[in-house]
Amino acid sequence: MDDVLARGDAKALAQTAHSLKSSSANLGARRLSACYRDLEQCAREGKLDAAAKLLAAVRSEQAQALDALRDLLAMETTL
After folding, report:
1. What does the H/E/C string look like for 6-53?
2. What is the structure's pLDDT at 75?
3. Are 64 and 31 in contact (CB under 8 A)?
4. C-alpha pair distances (Å), 37 with each of 5, 74, 77
5. pTM for the complete prediction?
6. Does residue 79 sit in helix, strand or coil?
């Protein structure tokens, strides 16, 4: 996403955020999905500066979601 923002490609950013929003929602990562929803909205409105600021929140939520998924996978392998 950094590359897309650096190019100023709002359409590509919106498409990427939309896909990731859906994927994260399917995994139950609701807060991450909400971050992607906000990112998608900024991109659709052409607010790339605001989108760039949202990336920190997205990255934080990504890390938390990945940790939660790893924990779930670890529990599955011990059952």
Report:
1. HHCCHHHHHHHHHHHHHHHHHCCCHHHHHHHHHHHHHHHCCCHHHHHH
2. 87
3. yes
4. 16, 29, 32
5. 0.88
6. coil
66 CB-side CA count, 13 A: 6
Confidence of residue 79 (pLDDT cuts 50, 70, 90): low
List of residues 6+ apart from 78 with CB closer than 8 A: none
Q: Within 13 A of 26's CA, how many CA atoms are on the CB side? A: 6
Specify the amino acid at residue 17. A
Query: Hey, what's the torsion of the CAs at 70, 53, 44, 66, to 10 degrees?
Result: 0
pLDDT digits (tens, 9 = 90+) for 19-52: 999 999 999 999 999 999 999 999 999 999 999 9
